[in-house]
Design brief:
heterodimer, A: mainly beta, seven-stranded mixed sheet, 0% helix, B: 112 residues, five-stranded antiparallel sheet, 56% strand, globular
């Protein structure tokens, strides 16, 4: 059973389109995250949710909007896609918030987004 | 500003060699340090370290934390081509930001 899953794995789209990426975890975790990994492989946090509540909202364009319908799901919607949005987006989950306990973080397989 | 620095940035070795990867951190407070291995896809969890001097081991991989030196090392003995990956280090800084701080990773290539 996949612990953290994302769909789709690949997404190729044109500038200006709107797209969504879905994430689900079956680990019973309370906290979920979205990361962006650029071409240099640096992982940058975008958002985190704890028990469906938004906790982290980094300096991300407001074209990006996360939604957590329940603790097991965290989706990412992107409006008006730009070339610079091309990257790999990882969903992750952990038992709790960083700093509140010793929690391991588990990552989904990633969604490679290419904007043309 | 909280910071995690990994060295070297990249490393090429031959099968059978032993490698040591470094992770140094400067954070407000420290709670834990995590190591991940990233091959072609998602980072996979290797170790979590919270206490100085206690080695964590899994097969040919081991890691230890030195809180005095604000650093951790990841050792891989008898390397194999399957060890080729990017190794990421992340720190929980317990700064009230609720996020892990990631290093830029060490890219390891093991040649047959």
């Amino acid at each position: 059973d996949t612990a953290v899953s994302q769909t789709p794995k690949y997404l190729v789209t044109q500038m200006g389109n709107d797209k969504s990426i879905k994430c689900e975890q079956n680990l019973g975790h309370d906290t979920m995250y979205w990361y962006k990994q650029d071409s240099k492989k640096f992982l940058k946090i975008m958002f985190s949710y704890n028990n469906k509540e938004l906790i982290i909202n980094e300096t991300v364009p407001n074209r990006f909007s996360p939604k957590s319908p329940d603790k097991a799901h965290l989706n990412l919607h992107i409006n008006s896609l730009e070339l610079g949005d091309s990257a790999v987006y990882f969903c992750a989950s952990s038992g709790g918030l960083a700093g509140m306990g010793n929690y391991e973080q588990y990552f989904g397989p990633g969604t490679r987004l290419t904007v043309t | 500003e909280d910071k995690v620095v990994q060295s070297p940035l990249s490393l090429v070795v031959h099968e059978g060699d032993t490698v040591t990867l470094n992770c140094s951190y400067e954070v407000t407070n420290f709670r834990s340090l995590l190591w991940y291995k990233q091959e072609k896809k998602a980072p996979t969890f290797l170790f979590m370290l919270t206490s100085s001097g206690i080695e964590k081991k899994s097969g040919r991989l081991s890691s230890i934390l030195d809180k005095k030196e604000l650093s951790s090392i990841l050792n891989i003995t008898a390397t194999q081509t399957g060890d080729s990956a990017i190794y990421l280090c992340a720190v929980d800084p317990t700064s009230g930001t609720y996020k892990y701080i990631f290093g830029t990773g060490t890219r390891l290539k093991v040649l047959a």
